[in-house]
Amino acid sequence: MTLLKPALVALAIALAQPALAQVPRTPDGKPDMSGIWTNASLTPLSRSPAQKSLVVTEEEAKKIAAGTAIAGVPANDPEFSKNTTYSDPTKGAPPKGGSDFGLKGYDSFWVTPGDKLSNVKGEWRTSNIVEPATGQLPFKDPAAQQKKQMIGFQRYMTGNAPYEGPEEPAISERCLIGFGQTGGPGMLSVLYNNNYQFVQTPTHMMILVEMAHDARIVPIFTTADEARAHHKPSAITPWLGDTVGWWDGDVFVMETVNVKPLQAENQSFPLSKQAVVTERLTRTSDKDIFYEFSVNDPGTYTQPWKAELSFYPTSKLFEYACHEGNQGMIGILAGARELEREAALTAKPTKPAKASKPTR
Questions:
Q1: Which of 107, 104, 84, 113 is nearest to 191 (CA)?
Q2: Distance CA 262, CA 152 (A)
Q3: Which of 234, 183, 305, 269 is closest to 242 using CA atoms?
Q4: Do the beta carbons of residue 307 and residue 186 sit within 8 Å?
Q5: pLDDT tens-digit profile of 239-284?
């Protein structure tokens, strides 16, 4: 009986784990994550108020996908179809104070967010967030966060930001990192360029993100304690945060701290300096990586929260030439210098100060 009990415990643990026997493995026996993957889907991070359930049937998922708004435009809208053709360069500049963003700036060639909801563990999901059960971000101050997000969105969409210097445009517009949390921590899909390349070695996991070609180079340690001991000092806040990794059985775990505050203000969900983001990657088949991440940030949220999605194999990683042909920064800086010249020409000349008489 004493031998039977440990055997039953081992069996129970084995049954509780995903079936990984058939997944590709590296020479050192770890599940092989290497390859080109995509997490493109129409499932949002937070659940729509119209959707009460996290999991829906395939038929319901198709209906939701058919009616999903893309780039803020209702699906099946005739205006969307009419305006998402290629932009016409012969029509000149948009009106003063207006914007060429949205339907005119992003035509249908570029908009590729996927055409279906996310399928996770064989289930069609209506949100990435699984905890809390509401599917909503548990903000400490929801009104303040919503107001902040709307102000930033309106400035970006209407072009009403001051743009008086190179620091004014959003970090994604400056091609520093991708927008919408593509690079993580917490890798989410966005409007387009949702492809990733994973390169796995015994000592590092490299994740190349197609959007802006962000690269996460994660050192791998033997244990969680050893990995956490190698976090950098808190004064160092790199783009995409300070990430370390380790293997928990067949699950690859990444822990990120010290996300750069400027990044945190421009992503799909805000993070404070206290935030710890834990990501877990599980190769469940030759055509799927189960991906989950949890956020523990008492500075922003009332409780830890968790999201789940999947990575699927895809064929190519395309070049994201963010700077090439981008005249925005040149225009901003040239305009600022012209305003300075105009101000200098119209400024009244100042009389030179009289020299003071020397005192005896």
A1: 113
A2: 13
A3: 234
A4: yes
A5: 999 999 999 999 999 999 999 988 876 788 999 999 999 999 999 9
Please, which residues have CB within 8 angstroms of residue 269's CB and are 6 or more apart in sequence? 45, 137, 181, 186, 295
Cα 101 to Cα 106, 164, 323, distances in angstroms: 7, 19, 17
* pLDDT tens digits for range 72-117: 444 444 444 444 444 566 766 666 655 544 444 555 667 788 889 9
Contacts of 158 (CB under 8 A, 6+ apart): 98, 99, 101
DSSP 301-358: BSS-EEEEEEEEE-S------SSTT--HHHHHHHHHHHHHHHHHHHSPPPPPPPPPPP
Find tokens 């949220």 and name the residue. 301
Between CA 195 and CA 21 the distance in angstroms is 26
Structure tokens at 49: 């108020």
- Residue 300 and residue 141: Cα distance in Å, rounded? 8
pLDDT, residue 171, reads 80
Residue whose pair of structure tokens reads 């190769």 in the numeric block? 283
Identify each DSSP E strand in 286-341 by its residue range.
288-296, 305-313
Q: Which helix (H) or strand (E) is 38 found in, with range?
A: strand 35-38
Q: Where are the domains of the chain?
A: 18-43+132-313
Largest Cα separation within the chain, whole Å, is: 110
Q: Is 37 exposed, middle or buried (0-12, 13-18, 19+ CB in 10 A)?
A: buried
Whole-prediction pTM value? 0.79
